[in-house]
Write a structure and sequence with these properties.
By secondary structure, the protein is of the alpha/beta class. Among the domains are: 19-94 and 309-342, no CATH class; 374-580, Glycoside hydrolase family 3 C-terminal domain (Rossmann fold), CATH 3.40.50.1700; 633-746, Sandwich (Immunoglobulin-like), CATH 2.60.40.10. The protein binds beta-D-glucopyranose (BGC). Residues 99, 143, 196, 275-276, 502 line the site of beta-D-glucopyranose.
Length: 749
């Protein structure tokens, strides 16, 4: 073709109908779809990656070539975006997705810890900040929030979720979606959220990651689905499927889950992406070959194929054989284009690349301060015998233990960036906080573990640590010398960040043996010992609770974890966090959670044939909602404004709360409801509301909670969402165990 013809042709292409429509309206997408070839459409459904064992069509230069050909719809980086926009036939921009789970560069506490703050506005703010820091470097789509409910601390991914309660999980889901997406998804500092993992991933059997799940529909609707639905109600733009089965069919190929429930019943109008290679994994589930599983996924309403490239390979063949329809491809493609449109990518594909702004916002003081505040509010005081805490800044403080000298572990699992320059070790933070007043000595005392595999998990070969018994003895000796010189000992123990998160299940959730041994040696010195824990899951702490004076659960608290901890230990901040997950007495109790169903043989110590263990109690060591303060709170008698209500009427529950201690404090007051006689057996208690209350020393306040008839509804055996008439019990207290009770009746008109 000679040059002038070429130019005319190019002009014609660029002046095609799709580019004439305004990029924000539906016509624009209609015209665009009409111009797209089949392969370009399938390309939009393709999230390029590169997983071990998966033949990758889009690697390295090949990937760039695929982008050029319009065969990849989602990928990150400015270079890729330039190729997509400037060199592909239709110039369709890429959407760039990432896992920004608890902050981008300013890292917040792991989600399980943040949940313990019961501070929804601050959690929302942490998501807002994550969006601000992510969007300046190209990311406009976040594979978060993870809203799975988990009752199993063995499961490493419990660190990523809000804990065991569906109602509270739903509040967090809404806050996170609002935080990421803001009011205007097309703004350059908001990003599209992706609620995951739909559905039931948190119920993996035996707490083993990627394991199977099985549960009844009433259980899933009442106990697991609330947070997913809440995210949809909050307008989440996308949803990620889970790896597990839902009623025998993998979620990724489950048409009931995506089409009937998510889209038809919940009116979700965004797009669905698979989890990483989840389509291909259906082959392992025994559902069929690649052709079959691709067909199932597309028919189930799954729009985007993450990494597996099954859609690329199989959809053309399936179309030829009339096993899927072009409508199905068009619908999926349109949903992805709509997402790009909502983000404003067609108007400005480069709006999310702002290196100058990045210098100002990433790790700015306001973000670091928010991280500190959330970390302070996430630290749970589990035990404080003889009020050994807060620590006085005097004498000599011994800071001993492997977790006192690490930075990166405090960031926790799954960080987008492992920035540690703004992070202090716990030892340094304590030393700085006490400077000029108390002497602070430190020693590691032992390794994280003497299990060589666990110790070296995720380490590169050059960093491999060999277990050296002599070295271990030397470490212990040094620590005991430090302890000997100290007036009070902070034993800083817990888990490495690699022991929680994805593919990090643990069958033994106690402190590793070498840490326990060190703790025992420290206790043998008969000095006051505070056990400070930095970990990513509930631990089994029976021995520690029986023997140590004070226990502080500091979790993996993010960029400002160490300073937040020092503030709490020295009483600059009065701890107020409350657990959102039960801590078991031992692994044998799992699953142990507060909102359990009743048994026909309730525990009775005088009768043999009742529901119990021979060797441990039924109750967890620390229940849901539990956490102490440096002050004391006294609850007055709870009252209700009426004994009977009719549907639509409001009931007000009131209680006086008094801070009877010497310092100001914050209490999380929790309200639970129980439906004692119902169509299906209901949990012994369910959280329905809470208030986080600030009280000065000596101050009191009357709190009011309003209960609506909606709070009494649940999913019945036919899945209708309704209430039953009759008696209801209300419980109010500072945790799920220590509560007052009052009853009312819901009557017909
Ligand atoms: C995880 C998802 C994550 C995805 C992409 C998967 O292995 O299960 O939570 O979003 O990888 O990184």
């Amino acid at each position: 073709m000679n040059k002038p013809y070429c130019i005319i042709l190019l002009l014609l292409i660029s002046f095609s109908t799709y580019s004439q429509n305004s990029k924000g309206d539906a016509d624009f997408l209609d015209s665009l779809l009409q111009e797209m070839t089949l392969l370009e459409k399938i390309g939009q459904l393709n999230l390029s990656g590169g997983a071990a064992g998966i033949p990758v069509i889009g690697k390295g230069d090949a990937r760039e070539d695929y982008i050029r050909q319009g065969l990849i719809g989602c990928s990150g980086g400015i270079k890729s975006q330039r190729i997509a926009v400037n060199e592909s036939r239709l110039g369709i921009p890429l959407i760039a997705g990432r896992d920004i789970i608890h902050g981008h560069t300013t890292i917040f506490p792991i989600p399980l810890a943040s949940a313990c703050s019961w501070n929804l506005p601050l959690i929302e703010k942490s998501a807002r900040i994550a969006a601000i820091e992510s969007t300046v470097s190209g990311t406009c789509w976040n594979y978060s929030p993870m809203v799975d409910i988990s009752r199993d601390p063995r499961w490493g991914r419990i660190a990523e979720c809000a804990g065991e309660d569906p109602w509270y999980g739903a509040q967090i889901a809404k806050a996170m979606v609002r935080g990421y997406q803001g009011d205007d998804l097309s703004a350059s500092n908001t990003m599209m959220a992706c609620m995951k993992h739909f559905a039931l991933y948190g119920a993996s059997e035996a707490g083993r990651d990627y394991n199977t799940v099985d549960m009844s529909r009433v259980s899933m609707f009442n106990e697991y689905m609330l947070p997913y639905k809440a995210a949809v109600d909050a307008g989440v733009g996308s949803v990620m499927t889970s790896f597990n089965l839902v009623e025998g069919i993998p979620a990724t190929g489950n048409s009931w889950l995506m089409n009937d429930l998510l889209r038809d019943r919940w009116n979700f109008d965004g797009f669905v992406v698979t989890d990483y290679t989840a389509i291909n994994e259906m082959i392992h589930h025994g559902i069929g070959d690649l052709t079959m599983v691709v067909k199932k996924a597309l028919k189930a309403g799954v729009d985007m194929d993450m990494v597996g490239e099954g859609y690329m390979k199989e959809i053309p063949k399936l179309l030829e054989k009339n096993q899927v329809t072009i409508d199905q491809v068009n619908i999926a493609c349109r949903r992805i284009l709509e997402a790009k449109q909502k983000l404003g990518l067609f108007n400005d594909p480069f709006k999310y690349f702002q290196p100058e702004l990045a210098k100002k916002v990433v790790l700015c003081q306001a973000h670091l301060d928010a991280s500190l505040e959330l970390a302070q509010q996430s630290i749970v005081l589990l035990k404080n015998q003889n009020e050994i805490l807060p620590l006085k800044k005097r004498g000599t403080i011994g800071v001993i233990g492997p977790l006192a000298f690490t930075k990166s572990d405090l960031l926790g699992m799954w960080c987008a960036h492992n920035e540690t320059d703004h992070l202090k070790t716990i030892y340094t933070a304590i030393k700085e906080a006490a400077a000029g007043k108390a002497k602070v000595l430190g020693a590691e005392g032992t390794l994280f573990t003497t299990d060589e595999y666990l110790l070296n998990r995720n380490k590169e070969e050059k960093d491999h640590i060999n277990i050296d018994t002599q070295q271990l003895e030397k470490m212990k000796k040094e620590a005991l010398q430090v302890a000997d010189k100290s007036d009070v000992i902070l034993a800083v123990m817990g888990e490495s960040r690699d022991w929680s998160g994805e593919a990090a299940s643990r069958a033994d959730i106690s402190l590793p043996e070498c840490q326990q041994d060190l703790l025992k040696d420290l206790l043998a010195l008969n000095k006051p010992v505070v056990l400070v824990l930095a970990n990513g899951r509930p631990l089994a702490l029976k021995w520690e609770n029986d023997n140590v004076d004070a226990i502080v659960e500091a979790w993996h608290g993010g960029t400002r974890a160490a300073e937040a901890l020092a503030d709490v230990l020295f009483g600059e901040v009065n701890p107020s966090a409350k657990l959102t997950v039960s801590f078991p007495v031992s692994v044998g109790q799992i699953p142990v959670y507060y909102n359990q169903k009743r048994t026909g043989r309730p525990y009775d110590e005088t009768y043999k044939f009742t529901s119990k263990y021979l060797d441990i109690p039924n109750e967890p060591l620390f229940p849901f909602g539990y956490g102490l303060s440096y002050t004391r709170f006294e609850y007055g008698t709870i009252q209700i404004d009426k004994k009977n209500v009719i549907p639509g009427e409001l009931l007000t529950v009131s209680v006086e709360l008094k801070n009877t201690g010497d310092v100001d404090g914050v209490e999380v007051v929790q309200l639970y409801i129980n439906d004692p006689v119902a169509e299906i057996s209901r949990p012994v208690k369910e959280l329905k509301n809470f208030q986080k209350v600030n009280l000065k020393a000596g101050e009191s306040k009357v709190l009011h909670f309003v209960i609506t008839t909606d709070d009494l509804k649940y999913y019945h055996s036919d899945l209708s969402y309704d209430y039953d008439f009759g008696k209801f019990n209300i419980y109010v207290g500072g945790n799920s165990r220590d509560v007052q009770e009052i009853s009312f009746e819901l009557k017909g008109r």
